[in-house]
DNA sequence: GCAACCTCTATGACATATCATATGTCTTTA
DNA sequence: TAAAGACATATGATATGTCATAGAGGTTGC
């Protein structure tokens, strides 16, 4: 039975959460994917990050991040300007439109999380986090 | 901090596990993706399933399953034949090559799981499963 | 200084995720 | 039984995941 496999449960939980999150963002009339939102949010926090560093923070590949950034630029949520001391890079900036999108998404995400974690205590959450971290460490070595 | 968000932990755990699994399959010289393997395995268990039913079992979209089946057919791991009473469908069969692939992957998967779950007790696993199931239910309603 | 090496970004190739829809085929209902 | 609805599969469009690599630009060591 697939349902007895823990990785199946993990996959099911995260997929269902992602679907809920994206549905609610769409329903709020916001034109962004959750993955793009995550990247945008990380850039907002620190605009000096390289794509590789962004990729590490959001657990994605540099190639994926490059394409998401290209889309965010195309959609006007990000702007880029050259960096003086390093011609390989560009400095990314969240545009006012990007800021507005972040602000609009924030409450939706908070509601999603609250819904997803209903009936789960802080202690259980800590346990969950600890076990998942253990799996992560077991897999990375 | 992203690391404080539980969905980040879930995502990190499952991604790292998937990467470990795929790396070990590749390293064993087996030409199949984990997703294709999962589909092939489900078909082996019940060859009368429709694509939609397979998709439900493996938590994927019918469109994704259709494309994976197309690849499995192309690679010779599956064969299809018409179904007498319903012209919409085809009956899928795991070929000998498919059987061999499943047999070769099995021990790799078992080793992966054992590695990923090192140091986690049966009781903790049950807790993990219960919490993830709760998140899933919270998100599906 | 410059050769070897490393970093940053972009992109090709292929697989998957998701939604929408097309097409053909049952099935049900008026 | 014909029309309407449901179902099975395929596919277009777009986004992401992953690996590999190209191409331009830094950095280091000699």
From TrEMBL, chains A, B:
InterPro entries: HTH_MarR-typ, MarR/SlyA-like, WH-like_DNA-bd_sf, WH_DNA-bd_sf. Gene3D superfamilies: Winged helix-like DNA-binding domain superfamily/Winged helix DNA-binding domain (1.10.10.10). Residues 3-137 form the HTH marR-type domain. PANTHER family: HTH-TYPE TRANSCRIPTIONAL REPRESSOR YETL, TRANSCRIPTIONAL REGULATOR, MARR FAMILY. This is MarR family transcriptional regulator.
